[in-house]
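User: ok so my PI wants both of these folded by tonight, can you help

Assistant: No problem, let's get them done. Here's the first:
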Amino acid sequence: MTTPRAINAALMLLVASGGAVFLAVGVAVAEPNPSSDTSIPADGPDYGVNETRFPLLWSDDLDQQNRSSDEFEETVSSAPEFSTRLAGSTDVPFEKPIEDVERWNSGDLQDFDPGGEKTSVYPERAHLEDGLYIRDAYTSIVAVQPSTVLHSGNTSTRYITPDGEVLAIADYRVRVPDDDTSGSVRHYWSIADTAVDTVVLQTESWTLDADHGHRSTLEYRRLSGAQNLTVEATVTARLRHETRTCTDYNSTIGSCEGSWETEVDYPTEQVTATDSRHAVVSQIDDRGGKRVTFENDPTHTGVVIHPGTRWAAIDVGSDARLRGNWRFYSAGVDGWQTMVSRTETETTRTNSSVRPAQLHAIPTQKRPDMPSKATEDAEPPLVIEEAWGSKHAGPSLSSAIAIPTVDNYTNATSIAVRSETLPAATFDEVTVHGIVRGQSETISVPDNGTVRDTTLELIVLEANSSGILVQATVTETTTGDPVTTGRVEIGNQSATLNASGMAVLELEKRSSSLIDGQYVPADWWRADQLYSAAEDRVTVPPNYPAFQKLVQLLLVTLLWFLPVALAVYGFDYLTGGAVLGLRDYP
């Protein structure tokens, strides 16, 4: 089996197992060496993420390229094995946001093992808070989900849905003062009780949810706009402080010769730790659109859709899908590869038991496309007429991400398509899928009328050595009513139609007697009055002189030549025809 055939066979296995991926072209395939890279968690696959998908979640792993494909070819026996080797050789983008990232994060959260009262266990980038007794207190957001971090230009923005959840962990340790066991007054310290009392999710304006403990799943609902999601954990420690006082203390021998009086108090302390994520709520704007049919071709349908936001795909019925600029990849979150354990006297570092993943979106093409192509036997179900929106520079990704992006792209918040194969009723509703997993909305597309057929008539008003004057008239073919929008083009000349549906164009004199003109309407996806294009051809008539000028030319000719003819005839008469021979004499 040749290498391409081996890869194709493996891809078929991968797709059959649910691995919907898009492979970057021209990327070397090689066997990874997992033992040399800690980017991939050692405890996976798990939590409902299967063997095929799990290796693809860690695009920040160490890719090993430029190796022979022989090993890959010989061992492509299953989809999971192919997926592991593929992920170790390159990074694999997805065509849509995947749910596996959320499954993994939710399950992996439960792997967090706090350190106990005197040990704080925290990710190495956690922001630590200290009090008098409570030390190394923190809370860290593990994930905001579903969410997608979109990369464009030099910026990265986290997009979320209006409803979602925030996963967080918290821990701390308690520093217990040393006992003082000498003298007449002695102090004994111990921990009475400690807890992560509250874990609150809030924005700048609202408290959204609350929990307690070391692992929290906090929910939010009906958010909009830009939000700062903040998790605030409050840690409480209550210590037992016992004070013993001797009523008769012999300092010479260091002994209490009386009795000990005991007092107990319970110093209490609270420390608050926070962690935040800035996010923008991605919402599909149901600004509708419009659907048109064409008078000159009843099988032809045009549709304009205005998602109003970044989108991953648009489904038209069950047979056609438009694909947005974006592809998606998953990678581990920075700062979670190492977990630190700290006591009062010791600090150790180990591989983290919590390894969150994050979904990312990048532009891999300049504008949307239609994946289904035309064949010799059939037209594509949809043809994109135009996609428009704001223009942006492509992102610069980390060198660890081996997925090509475009230098610039159009963020198409509106798109116009036409179809010659799908029934018009197919476009009654379309489904827009956003860039965040689970975000989709069905948009109704109303019927906005028919693109009416038109007729263009060209008439030559005047043609002379200076040029040609042409009158163009555009009417609706069915009704004969004048068309008052759009323009007429003849060669490099153009003129807009007036209220009577007419335009006059002054052309330069040309060698050809044929004049071709076109009526150019406004694009149907932008216009309120819908018309189709039309053409006409006219012939410039020959430039014959007028009758009066011909009579004048004849008279002038006679006046010029009659005296000469009489003189010649008279001379011939006088000479008897001997010289000119115009007449014979007997």
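One down. Here's the second:
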Amino acid sequence: MDSKHIVIIGGVAGGASAAARARRHSETARITVIERGPDVSFANCGLPYHIGGEISDRDELALQTPDSLRQLLNLEVLTLTEATAIDPNARSVTLRSLSDGTESSIGYDQLILSPGASPLRPPIPGIDNERILTLRNLEDMDRIMSAMPETRKVGIVGGGFIGLEMAEQLAHLGKEVVLVELQPQVLPQLDAEMVRPLQRELRHHGVELILGDGINGFARSDSGVVAQLGSGRSVECDLVILSIGVRPESDLARAAGIELGPRGHITVDSFQRTSAPDVYAVGDVCESPDPLVGGHVGIALGGPANRQGRTAADHIFLGDRALPYPGSIGTSIVRVFGLEAGVTGASEKRLSAAGIRYKAVTVNGPSHASYFPGAETITLKLLWSPEDGRILGGEAVGRDGVDKRLDVLATAIRGRLTIDDLVHLELAYAPPFGSAKDVINTAGFAATNIRDGFLVPVQTLEEAKGHVIVDVRPAAAAAALPVPDSVNIPLPSLRSRLGEIDKSKPVYTVCQMGKTSYFAARILANHGYDARSILGGAHHQAPRPND
């Protein structure tokens, strides 16, 4: 009979997953889950959507209750109970009841730490204002919702995934929304040119963006809060929601002498073991190997937390026969009104910062067959290693089908596929679902063309400034979305008008989506011109009023 006592500090994704997996291994093990809050398992990724009314029933967010976990999994669940100390030598945890303050201790054979991460509240003037809120759990959600009836204008500080989700949902509620982001772009996890459509979409829906400006402090006003920005500007709001990142809740581990990484995450091995014997850590509190850039990275996502919980539980019962956790590549996606955007693997910014050599290409393609109703354009950026062609990262933005392409690229990264593999990747095709040549294939075509010298890529319009730019779109399309300082020679007439193009200078071709400019560049190259193609076309590159 297995008489292990497994104690899990923290529920939600990692802790609940570990508890469920441990019970699958053993009916006789004693499993105790300790949760500081009243809710042990809830869908924290769904919180913004209940605030905005898309998820109407609050109970839908409570995935499991303490009673249901006791009944389904025979767990001991202690809610409103805080773990205040760990003694690895005595294999015990000190507990304090948040209901009456009484203290007790509990022994363990194995301990799993899953306390998560808490929203950052920087130590700046006025941060203690009760109208400055964060969103982490159901209680936070309830506080924000209770403030909505008396709120007209909301300031959101931070333009990451949660900040954008909250901006969308609050706009749906008819609130005036101002979003402040320290970086010069929203969604800093993506490269700057890939989020321009998101910024246009936000502005189109009435969200005011203040980019490249930070918060110096807050002051009280008659209606609520005044955010004082680094630029000297002030923004008055009824309510402020902080969404500037999270801090791993690793103080308990630090006090117990457990090794932490440079940013305060608990250091773990591939089986989620910490530096303390029989102590594991999962979820937002720990750091994972980065299989692309190297070193370790903290990834605050539900998917990795769930799988890490499974790995820890498996190792407790199977030892080294368990499947090790391979690291996190940070696959993420967000919806912003009518647009979807996401990333998998490394961005160009991360690769550059890490000093890793890479190549990049940006292509456009339809979400399904272009002749079938409802097709939308997907802009996809692919990054790969010039040494072996291995895929390092991908980003995508569009109105439909972004998730499918990111999932394909995430699988390709995990499988160590190359740009050659993308060329012949066989994906599901019928007109309502995809294209005979999917945008994933197109990215592979373009990447291999660059490698093989068939395509000399130009990443941005900025690179073409001062050079000869030939716009090969039809005249009407060129007039509708102009490319500055270009001359319009539509592709069908290019061969007959070669004499108009100076052969002594490099020629930069551009079209609407990037495909026709490649055709034009090949025509020019075969006639002896030094021809380059501007990636992504005017759809991706041309300036627009909302930029």
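The chain has 16 helices and 31 strands. The chain has a mean pLDDT of 94. Good luck tonight!
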